[in-house]
Amino acid sequence: METPTTAMFLWTAICVAAVAWLILLRRRKTTATSGRRLPPGPRGWPVVGNIFDLSPLPHVTLAALKHKYGPLIWIRLGSVNTLVISSAEAAMVLFKNHDHSFCNRHLNESLKSDETISATIALSEYGPYWRMMRRLYTTEIFSRKRINDTAPVRRRCVDKMIKWISDEGKGTNTVELRPFLLATSINLIGNLVLSRDLVDPKSTKGNDFFDLNLELANLIIKPNLANFFPSLRWLDPQGIKNKVKEKLNLILEIVGSFVEERRRMIDLQHLQNREKDFLDVLMEFEGNGKDEPTKISDRNLNMLILELLTAGTETTVTTVEWAMTELLRKPDAMKKVRAEIAQVVGHDRKFEETDIEDLHYLRAVIKETLRLHPGPFLVPRSVLKDTEFMGYWIPKETQVFINAWGLGRDPSSWDDPVSFKPERFLGSKVDYYGQNFEFLPFGSGRRICPGHPLAHKMLHLMLGSLLQSFEWFLEDGVTSETIDMGEKLGTSLRKAIPLKVIPKALVVVYQGITYTRAKRLKRQMMQYYQLKANIVMKPINKAALSWGNKKLVRALMETTRREMLVWTALCVAAAASLLLFLLRRNSTTSGRRLPPGPRGWPVVGNIFDLGTSPHASLGCLKDKYGPLIWIRLGSVNTLVVSSAEAAMDLFKNHDHSFCNRHLNETMKSDDGLSATVALSQYNPYWRMLRRLYTTELISRKRIQDTAPLRRRCVDKMIKWISDEADGTSSIEVVPFVLATLINLIGNLVLSRDLIVDPKSIKGNNFFVLNSELAELIIMPNVANFLPSLSWLDPQGVKKKVKEKLDLILEIVSSFVEELRRIDIQHDQHKEEKEKDFLDVLLEFEGNGKDESAKISDRNLNMLILELLTAGTEATVTTVEWAMTELLRKPEAMKKVRAEIAQVVGHDRKIEESDIEDIPYPCAVIKETLRLHPGPFLVPRSVVKDTEFMGYWIPKDTQVFVNAWAIGRDPCTWDVPSSFEPERFLGSNVDYRGQNFEFLPFGAGRRICPGLPLAHKMLHLMLGSLLQSFEWVLDNGDTPETIDVGEKLGAVLRKTIPLKAIPRVLTV
Predict the structure, then answer these.
(1) Needs which cofactor (predicted)?
(2) What is the pTM of this model?
(3) Quick one: pLDDT at residue 593?
(4) Residue 14 within a domain
(5) Which of 120, 695, 850, 1037 is spaced 20 to 30 Å from 487 by Cα?
(6) Which residue among 459, 477, 505 closes a domain?
(7) Arithmetic mean of pLDDT, 437-457
(8) CA distance linking residue 74 with residue 85, whole number of Å
């Protein structure tokens, strides 16, 4: 009799709703799904459906059901139809083929407690408002430029975290890690959004904010009857909607106080000279008033900031805490990651974001942590309309769970999936950017987490700094075996018991001078530079120095006289360059606009911006500066063309103005280099050479007539490999391909094979010398950047180039002389011999005015050398990369071999006439050239001052056309970093210079003249290799671990040459 009236009313309403639902269910079951097949799933109870099947950890329960029901699981949570995606294959089909149909958000009744919740980017419906918010986020806060510009803010926030932990963890004090991580992440977002720190780990307002946020999150994920039976929402049976609204109001008050405080500071002019932050963007926003709001209301503005402060920190904090936990559980992994940081970063400076790409094991630790401990599900989606999906009917408004936790632990995708093994990601291209569907911690498709680029930086910077700055110990009584690994369900899977550890500050050694990192870095640097200055300015009292300082003094005093001369010359050149720059600055560019680009340093300009992979570094700058990028490499003005549109404008409208070659000082080492068709200036001599090449060597008739030669050379290659193959031993592919191409060019130019087999001494000497010469030419040379130092040849590069070139030309000359002797001995048969290209060069007679009367012996040898190198390098590299990519993607290998078998069969050899009938191998060649072209087209030089795309380009500017970046531009190509030959099937895009998004051979008047020959050889060689052998990876290699590192040169070779096992097939 003591039951309250409201409770009686509640349960009566539930019973009525249950009966009504049961009747409706029976009536609708036959009509709604008549003739339509739903995915399989466990049979639910009447009314409640599968609610009781979920358990306290639903992600675990649902993952277990995959083994019984497959990748798609259908459940009913009360009256809510729910589809669970449980495999990488199903996720791929969803995101690739049905992303639009599944792109709405499913908001349960708890999330509908306040309209402002649905105003966030994570939870808003897919429509104009969401697109507007996404645009603001990606352009104003998560753009690559913005993230790069705010690196110092992240560094400062992390430094503050290190200081907090240092102060808290003195001696043997135990610290709870999470509050420091959370305060750091909140402050970072605070600086991006409000230009200020918001909290510290012990602030009252900060603790209130954390506690209220946690309470709100717990309320939202709490089982709510109204979520399962939306017809009860008007009743709010557990009072959850009311509680959510109350907590949200309290949190928004705190956020509002942050905003008001920031506004007052502006009014008081305390933030006058500051950069615009995201709050400014939101306050200044003006929509179109139709499908976008005219202004963003104060409450929605506070809600958006709250979203950033919560969603923008939760994943990062939880991941770092789990990473530390896993490393403490696995001491071997902890040693490896700390050793890598010590090796790459050292102890003499702080960990920086620029180190991330070089820290492979640290990145693998982050990935493995995100695999094992992602959010349990991606944010639930809702189906926009009735959809046919993987053979099943999915009704409109079905709730969709993508079980990210289950995908990351699926034994179909991962070996030993429950173990923490960062090594699985070493050498693997699997990443969390939404293209690898077995690994989706940030989601995929159009609703991928927009903040993942920032999270990428913060995860590595925070974890790396924690590992570099402290040695970590478990608290007393806890061991690596007994540390708690319990999970607490939420939007992320937090540790059930927060991690507590003992941090021990590490000592850093810098050039023999020892100090504690956190407190004495400034004094250390001052002493180091003072010591260095003293060595130059006055004698040193060595007796008064410590052992470490004596070591430093000895190192500094070992400077040679030559190095002193170089640095003196550099200083003089620097001063002269600076003076000239100041004098010419106003006169040369007055009223003229140069393209945008990164601000360079005095004298050296942007040299340090290039990195070890300049094509990739410059490709990244496109997002910040646009398709034209202006840089200064020392004193050399340089324009970088980085998009298809800019390339089209250049080659269609300005090809003549940009048609000269830029020869750096290394290339000027020998006049013979500038006598080649690739490097000669645009003038009558070049036109004469081009005419000779196109009419006598690579005309269509000549290429058709020499088809038997190519067949014979390729047959010889197949025999070489067959003789070498035993079915179990691997071979290095490149020497066979290279020897074949050298012989082909030898027959075209000199009517003979030049290399008897890939192991010949003369052949090997030629290959080695060529490789050494190429490395010298691309080697960074001070004189290339500061041509005023060319007379000094400060690194001796020009001298070394000349020496190597002389040795190579001796070998080429020996080929020519041997042929001449044979011709003299067989003079009577000379008329019967078909004329080769050497005959053409020897018989050439110029007009003696703008053409030389005869071609000198040295220039003749140089032209033959050009054919033997430029005519082979791109083809060899492309074949090697094509084989690598096919071995990495077995399904593509199967397709290309199946097509060759279908079209050509097994009863004859593949011929050049088959090329047009085998579109998939053609697509493989194109896709390989798209992903692995030469990094830049041969550099051009501007003939005269030119107006180009609205910018002024001065005469003699060096021009880089970034073919690598253009081929991977996401504005042009879908999933640009993936090897997908299918993108070229049914496409007219080709590499003949008319499709400016795809320029492996260049375009315009200086397009590679050997393109028609390369086209034939690429298809014939790759097709023959695939038809004649079954290729298996070397022992220990898998498609996931095969090395794909690039080595910079005129082309991008594989860092580690491809080795594979050929198994002979009968043709």
Answers:
(1) heme
(2) 0.52
(3) 92
(4) no
(5) 120
(6) 505
(7) 93
(8) 9
Give the chain's radius of gyration (CA, Å).
Answer: 34
Tokens 């593509």 belong to 892
- Residue 988: how many other CB atoms lie within 10 Å: 7
Query: Cβ(324)–Cβ(161) under 8 Å?
Result: no
The reply to whether 34 falls in a domain is: no
* Confidence check: pLDDT of 717 > 90: yes
Residue 547 falls inside a structural domain: no
Tens-place pLDDT, residues 993-1033: 999 999 999 999 999 999 999 999 999 999 999 999 999 98
Determine the average pLDDT of the residues in 735-748: 91
- CA angle at 978 for the pair 972 and 979, rounded to the nearest 5°: 105
Report the alpha-carbon distance of residue 542 to residue 1040 in Å, rounded.
Answer: 56
Does 566 score more than 80 pLDDT? Answer: no
The b-or-e profile of 670-697 (16+ CB within 10 A means b, else e) is bebbbbbbbbbebeebbebbbebbeebb
Residue located via tokens 């078998």: 901
Express each pLDDT in 465-505 by its tens digit. 999 999 999 988 888 888 989 888 887 889 989 999 999 98
Which residues have CB under 8 Å from 262's CB, separation 6+? Answer: 194, 195, 196, 271, 279
Tell me if 990 sits within 8 A of 922, measured CB to CB.
no
Q: Nearest-CA neighbor of 961 among 992, 990, 1004? A: 1004
Q: Tell me the C-alpha distance between 427 and 419, whole Å.
A: 19
- The per-residue b/e assignment along 724-744, b for 16 or more CB within 10 angstroms, e otherwise, is bbeeeebbebbbbbbbbbbbb
| Gap between the Cα atoms of 122 and 124, Å rounded | 6
Total domains in the fold of the chain:
2
Q: Are 467 and 193 in contact (CB under 8 A)?
A: no
Considering only CA atoms, which of 315, 322, 414, 396 is closest in space to residue 365? 322
Residue 316 has pLDDT above 90, yes or no: yes
Quick: pLDDT tens for 687-702: 999 999 989 888 889 9
Say yes or no to pLDDT of 831 above 80.
Answer: no
What is the rounded distance in angstroms from the CA atom of residue 588 to the CA atom of residue 609?
Answer: 25
Q: Nearest 5°: CA angle at 365, between 363 and 366?
A: 65
Pair (501, 623) in one structural domain: no
CA distance 911 to 1019: 9
Direct distance between the N- and C-terminal alpha carbons of the chain, in angstroms, rounded to an integer: 92
What's the pLDDT score for residue 554? 46
CATH number of the domain within which 861 lies: 1.10.630.10
Judge whether residue 16 has pLDDT over 70: no
Residues in the chain: 1067
157 is in an annotated binding site: no
User: And the tokens for 423?
Assistant: 């090594």
Structural domain harbouring 348: 104-505
940 token code pair: 């051009």
- Please state, in angstroms and rounded to a whole number, the distance separating the CA atoms of residues 1017 and 819: 25
Residues 482 and 630 in one domain: no
The answer to whether residue 13 is domain-embedded is: no
- pLDDT 10s digits, 890-915: 999 999 999 999 999 888 999 999 99
Segment 834-856 mean pLDDT: 83
Domain boundary among 505, 529, 564: 505
What is the full DSSP assignment across 177-242?
HHHHHHHHHHHHHHHHHHSS----TT-HHHHHHHHHHHHHHHHHHS--HHHH-GGGTTT-TTSHHH
pLDDT at residue 851 in the model: 77
Helix/strand/coil for 601: strand
Mean pLDDT (the chain) is 84
pLDDT tens digit sequence for 525-563: 344 444 444 433 334 344 444 434 444 444 444 444 444
Token couple for 588:
């040369």
Tell me how far CA of residue 201 lies from CA of 165, 187, 208, 212, 979, in angstroms.
Answer: 10, 11, 11, 15, 47
- The two structure tokens encoding residue 37: 């097949």
Rounded alpha-carbon distances, angstroms, from residue 143 to 28, 600, 622, 646, 693: 49, 22, 12, 22, 47
